[in-house]
Structures are given as structure tokens and as C-alpha cells.
Amino acid sequence: MNExxxxxxxxxxxxxxxxxxxAVGAIGVTLxxxxxxxxxxxxxxxxxxxxxxxxxxxxxxxxxxxxxPLVPTGFLVLPIAMILAxxxxxxxxxxxxxxxxxxGARPVTLLIASIGVTLxIQGLxxxxxxxxxxxxxxxxxxxxxxxxVPIEGxxxxxxxxxxxxxxxxxxxxxxxxxxxxxxxxxxxxxxxxMADNADLAxxxxxxxxxxxxxxxxxxxxxxxxxxxxxxxxxxxKPDLAFNIVLPIFAAAIVGGLGQSYGxxxxxxxxxxxxxxxxxxxxxxLRPVAGAIPFEVPATMAIVPTEYKLTVAFVILVVVLLWRPxxxxxxxxx
Length: 333
Description:
Elements: H1 2-36, H2 43-63, H3 73-76, H4 78-102, H5 107-129, E1 144-148, E2 157-161, H6 162-184, H7 186-196, H8 198-203, H9 208-233, H10 245-255, H11 260-278, H12 282-285, H13 309-322
Antiparallel strand pairs: 1-2
């Protein structure tokens, strides 16, 4: 039974946490693609930018004595960081992407421009913060939650940290709020209509410029939330989310580009696939090693930990071969 608890901690808990990060990140990617029809490669660095904004706000709040033992200070200032990140996302669109759209730039041109924005954001972060590693918990303690299992003989506990619990809760709230916004509000329905057919939406009298601005606000705020929660779970560095931007894109494509619900499904699919692939399955076989006709090796992970990013692309290829538009029927261009 201890082995099953170990499996639960390293696969189920880790899969939910990783899937939450991928899902929230993929929602922003898929919203931008659905409305503007280009792959925003700088979304990962928008997550990092949002995390550094929250870090600065947390430092300021700590200096002013604004802290609480209930939640980390980084989480306490998260709403303000999301607002500031949304404003910066609007600035990025107005400064880089809107002029290109006015000139009739093709999606591939916008994609290349987003790579340039990635380098700009990374360069600015390194200029002001350096290339080192920072932590939200330099003056605070990261709380570890241990839940004992009331079964005789079980010594292991179910473990997760307070930031991980907050991350899952924030993801659930964000998904529910986005669902209500897209299905109940007039502006949300306008976004869905524009994602289906932008030309028809414009002819129908929908304010497409407002829809574009709201798209960037949602994408920027969700990027800040995902980046901050990731930094609270691990550590803060200039390439915090750059290394996971490809799995985030894979999650968006697997779920169906332009489909927010598909991004959520794709994010958790990729997250659980990665944790399952790097788990050492020999741990579960050791208690029954005597009944197995072969010797249980020390390591039975499907892929080494350093290669877990390849799992996202294997899942991507398999799903696209079976359903080219993703699990949910997404946009094809």
C-alpha cells in the first residue's frame, strides 16, 4: 500500500499540478489563435513576465508589512499582477502585432514577430533581474501538507504543498469563470462567433477591435496567473516558462486550436502523460517480485526525466493521426 501512495504522490498529484499549468497556459494560446489566427510563441515569456511582476509586488508588500500566514504573499498580490500583465499584453499587441495586422501581414509573419517579442521580454528580464534564480519564499516558509492514510501498515502520507493546492483551486476557478464568460455574456458569445468566422462576425456588427482587446486581457491575465503559480511551486528565473512553451502548444493543438475546453483537456492529458512516462514502475512491482518470472530492474521508467518533453510530441502525433483537428474540433489554419 505504501507503493500505491508513492504512485499517487508522484503521478496523480504531480499530474494534476502539471496539467493545471499546461491547461491555463494553453487556454491563452488557443484564445489568441482562435481570434487572431496566429501562434503566439511569446506566451511562455508572458507567463514569466507575469511571475516577475508578482515577485516585485510581493517584495513591495513584504517591505510594507502586508503579509498573511494563510497564503503566500505572491498569491496575495496575484490579482494586481494579473491586471498589470493584462495591460502589458495590450501594449504588446498595440506596439507589435496591431501594426502588422493593419498592413495585412500573414500569420507566419506574426509568428516570427512573436519570436522577436520572446527575445525582447527575455532580454529585459535578464537586464533588470540578471540570470540568477529567485524565490517567493526567501522570507516565508513554503507549507507542506501531509495527509495520513488511515490504513493499517501504511506509513507514507499524501503530500502536496500549499502553492500546489492554491494552483489547482485557481485553475478550477479560472476555468469556471471562463466557461461562464464565454457562454453567458454577450462579449463572450461575440468572441466565440469571431473565432468561428471573423469576417461574418464583423459583417454582423460585432465590435471586432473590442473582442481582440478582451482576448489579450484574458490571455495576459491567465499567463500571469500560470507563471506566478508555477514560480510559487518551483523557483523564479528568466526562462521559467520558456522551457514548457512547447508542451503548452502541444496541449492546445491536441485539444483543438481555438477551443478553450480542448486546451483544458489537452493540458491535463499532456500533464498526466508526462508524469506516467517518467514514473519508476519497478516500485509497484517490487512487492510482487517473487511472483514475476523475470527480475525487476532498478528503474522501469518509460523515458528518463530529462526527456519527458518528448512525451508531449508523441501524444501530439498520435492524436493528430487519429483526429487531425484535435480532440475537440479545432481550427485547421
